Amino acid sequence: MKSFKELGIIEPILKSIEEEGFERPTEIQDKSISLILSGKDVIAEAATGSGKTLAFAADIIEKTEKGTGIRALVLTPTRELAQQVAAALSLFSKYKPLRIVAVFGGVAINPQITQLRRADVVVGTPGRILDHIGRRTLNLSKVNILVLDEADRMLDMGFIPDVKKIVGECPRNRQTLLFSATISREITVLARKYQKDPISVSAEAYVDPSKLTQLYYDVPDNLKFSLLVHLLKHEESELVMVFCNTRTNTDFVASNLKALGIGAMAIHGGLTQDRRDRIMKQFHSHDVRVLVCTDVAARGLDIPHVSHIYNYDIPMYGKDYIHRIGRTARAGKDGIAISILASRDYDSFRRVMKSNEVTITEEKLPDVKKVRISRKNFPKRTFRPGRRPHSS
User: What do you get for the CA distance between the two ends of the chain, in Å?
Assistant: First the structure.
């Protein structure tokens, strides 16, 4: 594997990379940076946390001159990812400063309008980008680098029509980089339409399977939450993420964990941006140990030191399960993914097992003490009896 310097990264960026303590490129950086710097359109299959941001940041920073208008646009599916990418671009451009502006919904638009007047690089979500285009507060006529980050997530969230409108505002003579955790047929069609002779590269999953233990418990319906409490109190852990399928269930689980003295907070798309920012800051600083979340937090958030993933609800689709467990077992550290199955989860669990080549071992149910659950904001749910899952 080449060094960062051998990949062709310019000295100002190399200096910031060194200061951040990065010793050698990740697989996706090694495979893509030289191609990107040479001006090629690239389709990169890489998960969050694989180092993909530096792969396109090196290109943007080298080829963008301050004060010449908006030369690069990065589209992201979520507000959190937009902030994260903008922060990384600012970090890597420390010794070649650029005006990097993040734009997303859920916050006042006027400060963004002011910032955009002098922006060199814009990172944003499709909805707010289109809003600015409609107001004529964002001019993309000088963009020479367009990045579609987590394209599969934008597809899942229904943003592709918006993305197409935004691409139409950019010059045809540009470099287009597409990053996606999975390359589906729809993503391939998108690439063919908007890229010129793209070169495909991919990196192995960032999660180390040898470091990841996957378990499940088959539990009576009335002990599902009690088992979660038992495991949180008895498992030695660093940061913990508990996944639910709905906002209502996320709030329910978090509020009842807090009532039992477990430091937990909920995050989902129904919260204001300021609230989400405060929660993530507390989680990153370890002030809050347990983050209860919907899949909005499964993608696009690079959170280190997550030792345990709990699937309180089993996701509907196998790829969402993979994205969830991808939050742990990173950078050589051990991780545990635990799924808690009640009768309503059996069908979803079978789909997960069928669509992924994973080994999930059944654990014997421990002696669980039933805990008291507050009826306040109790989630309304229709229970459907299912058949017991099989781990094979």
Answer: 38
- Residue 370 CA to residue 281 CA, distance in Å, equals 33
Are 226 and 341 within one domain? yes
* Cβ 259 vs Cβ 62: under 8 Å: no
pLDDT attached to residue 317: 82
Query: Does the residue 368 lie in any domain?
Result: no
Q: What percent of the chain has pLDDT over 70?
A: 91
pTM recorded for the entire structure: 0.70
User: Does 301 map to a domain?
Assistant: yes
- Answer yes or no: is pLDDT of 337 > 50: yes
| Cα separation values, 111 from 66, 107, 118, 137, Å | 20, 9, 12, 11
Q: How far apart are CA 46 and CA 43, in angstroms?
A: 10
Residues 82, 53: Cα–Cα separation, whole Å:
11
User: Which tokens in the block code for residue 108?
Assistant: 């006042």
Looking only at Cα atoms, what is the longest distance across the chain? 66
